[in-house]
């Protein structure tokens, strides 16, 4: 038996359609155009591709896109000054500082300088705290996208055994908080977890976010489990660069009940949720009703 393939690309397309419809309503009904500012420091080629895609999709949904490309040797003071300007700019409802930042910049300090109401990545300590205490927050895009796919596939997640592999601040930890919010029994596994295979094999929901290509093989998966692969790893295969996840798709697909592919799974959801968060931020900034189904 072969797993159902969860089509993140198609889901993301529909989500972007709903975002675009809401943008039209905001423009026509309130003269409000949601705006997203993306800040890129340095010239990492992968980051440039992401930033370009974000800008393109932002415009396609009818929102305003502001791109700020700064040289790799930008000082912290200059970056903080830009963030202060974006915080104060009424046309900007969302601010994303592309990570990772060059090593001479303190990423924590920079992220926490963003107005939490404009923090569409959900990385500001205020949003982290709000999410952790079950209050209304800006929710990190990748975990939010994973949650939408899980709800769509499973309906209620209540009482299910969820294992998140990876404990990063940007995926693992917020993912675990969201799953807890759905009344899952949540385990966070990581590089020091003993008998990690056995821990994973308990999972009804397995979220892989470790950044190690194809680490999780079919024998780590409970038959019928729903597997969400957050990994985006560029590897060389037969002389060609290919994108693979943290899950070994070939062996997992025969065991899992459902699985997200890479590419075409979680990745497109991340960008769609960024656009959704920007609309949510714009509505909150203007005291307008938030669109249904765009938040957690
Ligand atoms: N502040 C910040 N927020 C982020 O959300 C953020 C970031 N920094 N830094 C970099 C990572 C990476 N990221 C991706 C988004 C979409 C795809 C995506 O759409 N992937 C496609 C494939 C794209 C390709 O072919 O390369 C897919 O999986 O189908 C991938 C990766 C967001 N990130």
UniProtKB/TrEMBL annotation:
Its EC number is 1.5.1.5, 3.5.4.9. GO terms for molecular function: methenyltetrahydrofolate cyclohydrolase activity; methylenetetrahydrofolate dehydrogenase (NADP+) activity. InterPro entries: Aminoacid_DH-like_N_sf, NAD(P)-bd_dom_sf, THF_DH/CycHdrlase, THF_DH/CycHdrlase_cat_dom, THF_DH/CycHdrlase_CS, THF_DH/CycHdrlase_NAD-bd_dom. Pfam families: THF_DHG_CYH (PF00763), THF_DHG_CYH_C (PF02882). SUPFAM superfamilies: Aminoacid dehydrogenase-like, N-terminal domain, NAD(P)-binding Rossmann-fold domains. NADP(+) binds at residues 166-168, 232. It comes from the Bacteria. Belongs to the tetrahydrofolate dehydrogenase/cyclohydrolase family. Catalyzes the oxidation of 5,10-methylenetetrahydrofolate to 5,10-methenyltetrahydrofolate and then the hydrolysis of 5,10-methenyltetrahydrofolate to 10-formyltetrahydrofolate. Homodimer. This is Bifunctional protein FolD. The lineage of its organism: Bacteria, Pseudomonadati, Pseudomonadota, Alphaproteobacteria, Rhodobacterales.
């Amino acid at each position: 038996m072969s797993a159902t393939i969860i089509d993140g690309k198609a889901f993301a397309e529909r989500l972007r359609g709903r975002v675009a419809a809401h943008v039209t309503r905001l423009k026509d009904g309130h003269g409000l155009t949601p705006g997203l500012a993306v800040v890129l420091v340095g010239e990492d080629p992968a980051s440039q591709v992401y930033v370009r895609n974000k800008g393109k999709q932002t415009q396609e949904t009818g929102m305003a896109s502001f791109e700020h490309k700064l040289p790799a040797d930008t000082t912290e003071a200059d970056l903080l000054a830009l963030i202060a300007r974006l915080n104060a700019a009424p046309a900007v409802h969302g601010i994303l500082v592309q990570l990772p930042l060059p090593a001479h910049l303190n990423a924590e300090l920079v992220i926490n300088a963003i107005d939490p109401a404009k923090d569409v990545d959900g990385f500001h300590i205020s949003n982290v705290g709000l999410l952790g205490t079950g209050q209304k927050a800006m929710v990190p895009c990748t975990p939010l996208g994973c949650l939408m796919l899980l709800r769509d596939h499973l309906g209620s997640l209540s009482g299910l055994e969820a294992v998140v592999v990876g404990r990063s601040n940007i995926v693992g930890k917020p993912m675990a908080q969201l799953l807890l919010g759905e009344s899952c029994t949540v385990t966070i596994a990581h590089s020091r977890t003993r008998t990690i295979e056995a821990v994973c094999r308990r999972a009804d929901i397995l979220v892989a976010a470790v950044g190690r290509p194809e680490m999780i093989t079919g024998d780590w998966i409970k038959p019928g489990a729903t597997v969400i692969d957050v990994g985006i790893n560029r590897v060389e295969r037969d002389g060609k660069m290919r994108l693979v996840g943290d899950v070994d798709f070939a062996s997992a697909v025969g065991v899992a009940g459902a699985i997200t592919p890479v590419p075409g799974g979680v990745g497109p959801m991340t960008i769609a949720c960024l656009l959704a968060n920007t609309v949510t931020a714009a509505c909150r900034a203007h005291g307008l009703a938030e669109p249904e189904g765009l938040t957690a």
